[in-house]
């Protein structure tokens, strides 16, 4: 096979494989909404993805002092595209939710969003 033919085969393979490799789930919604201001830190934080997930690897709900308010994080039993996070010890201030999940296609995905709580419970 000539070099030009190899290049054409490689290009065609990349075009066919790209949609599969880039088929990540992506976040559809969060609660509280990213960037929002809520009265208090909710007892549950949720992250809803576009596609079903295989597992939750890590979720942290961190306050401005980097204290983790996560009690547990797991997939919703009725909706495998939704991560439910139980929180504790609410304080007023800014929160950053860091997450890492594994999509059904096996790819790991990570991200974060922030929101603010006006006061403690």
What does this protein look like?
It is a single chain. This protein is α+β, with helices and mostly antiparallel strands and 121 residues long. The chain has one helix spanning 3-21, and strands at 27-31, 37-38, 44-49, 53-62, 70-76, 79-87, 93-103, 108-117. A four-stranded antiparallel beta sheet has the order 1-3-6-5, with no helix packed on it. Strands 2-8-7-4 form a four-stranded mixed beta sheet, with no helix packed on it.
Based on the model shown, name its key terms.
single chain, 121 residues, alpha+beta, four-stranded antiparallel beta sheet, four-stranded mixed beta sheet, 1 helix, 8 strands, 16% helix, elongated
* Helix proportion range: 10-25%
| Strand order across the largest sheet | 1-3-6-5
What is the gyration radius calculated from CA atoms? 19 Å
**Major sheet:** 4 strands, antiparallel
- The arrangement of helices and strands along the chain is HEEEEEEEE
Oligomer: single chain
Low-pLDDT parts are: 6-22
**Number of helices, where a helix is a run of at least 4 consecutive DSSP H or I residues:** 1
The averaged pLDDT comes out at 85
Overall SS class: alpha+beta
Provide a quick synopsis of the model.
By secondary structure, the chain is an alpha+beta fold. It contains one helix and eight strands; from the N terminus they run αββββββββ.
Task: Give the topology, please.
Blueprint: H1 3-21, E1 27-31, E2 37-38, E3 44-49, E4 53-62, E5 70-76, E6 79-87, E7 93-103, E8 108-117
Parallel strand pairs: 2-8
Antiparallel strand pairs: 1-3, 3-6, 4-7, 5-6, 7-8
């Amino acid at each position: 096979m000539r070099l030009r033919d190899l290049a054409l085969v490689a290009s065609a393979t990349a075009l066919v494989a790209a949609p599969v490799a880039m088929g990540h789930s992506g976040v559809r919604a969060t609660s509280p909404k990213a960037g929002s201001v809520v009265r208090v830190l909710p007892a549950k934080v949720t992250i809803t993805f576009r596609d079903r997930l295989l597992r939750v690897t890590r979720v942290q709900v961190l306050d401005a002092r980097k204290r983790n308010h996560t009690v547990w994080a797991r997939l919703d039993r009725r909706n495998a595209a939704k991560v439910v996070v139980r929180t504790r010890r609410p304080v007023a201030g800014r929160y950053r939710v860091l997450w890492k999940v594994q999509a059904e296609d096996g790819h790991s995905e990570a991200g974060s969003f922030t929101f603010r709580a006006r006061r403690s419970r």
